[in-house]
């Protein structure tokens, strides 16, 4: 019997990466911060430090700070997505987000494949 990770088209893996979430409405650009709880090739689960429940369906740019060093530098990878779900947590003043990636770069896919267990989920979108 297959476990739930094997049944998924794009398995999720628990990773904690810092992430900046950028929204743009008109000429106003807002930046929020948080960290990933889990990530796959097609989506991420993020704990954000602010309530973004009003931003559901909004397009966002995500910048992942992977804390993985290459030549002494941290890797920063950007991708584009939209917020599918947001749950507000008033006790911590933040929200839990499910963000679907609408475009992923080769750099993003290569970064995930370099993490070992991700090779199974790297099917081009």
Q: What's the arrangement of secondary structure elements?
A:
Elements lengths: L3 H4 L10 E8 L2 E12 L3 E6 L10 E12 L2 E17 L4 E10 L2 H8 L12
Antiparallel strand pairs: 1-2, 1-4, 2-3, 3-6, 4-5, 5-6
List keywords for this structure.
mainly beta, 125 residues, 6 strands, disordered C terminus, Thrombin, subunit H, globular
Characterization of this structure:
By secondary structure, this protein is mainly beta. It has a single domain, classed as predicted glycosyltransferase like domains (Thrombin, subunit H, Beta Barrel), CATH 2.40.10. Helices cover 10% and strands 52% of the residues. The protein contains two helices and six strands. The protein has helices spanning 4-7, 106-113; strands spanning 18-25, 28-39, 43-48, 59-70, 73-89, 94-103. The protein has a six-stranded antiparallel beta barrel with strand order 1-2-3-6-5-4. β1 (18-25) and β2 (28-39) form a beta hairpin. The chain is globular and about 35 Å long.
């Amino acid at each position: 019997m297959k476990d739930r990770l094997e049944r998924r088209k794009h398995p999720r893996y628990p990773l904690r990466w810092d992430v900046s979430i950028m929204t743009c409405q008109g000429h106003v650009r807002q930046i929020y911060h948080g960290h990933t709880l889990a990530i796959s090739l097609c989506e991420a689960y993020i704990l954000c430090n602010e309530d973004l429940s009003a931003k559901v369906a909004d397009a966002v740019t995500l910048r992942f700070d992977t804390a993985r060093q290459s030549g002494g530098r941290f890797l920063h990878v950007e991708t584009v997505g939209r917020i599918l779900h947001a749950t507000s947590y008033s006790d911590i003043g933040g929200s839990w987000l499910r963000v679907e990636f609408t475009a992923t770069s080769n750099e993003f896919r290569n970064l995930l494949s370099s993490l070992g267990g991700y090779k199974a989920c790297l099917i081009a979108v």
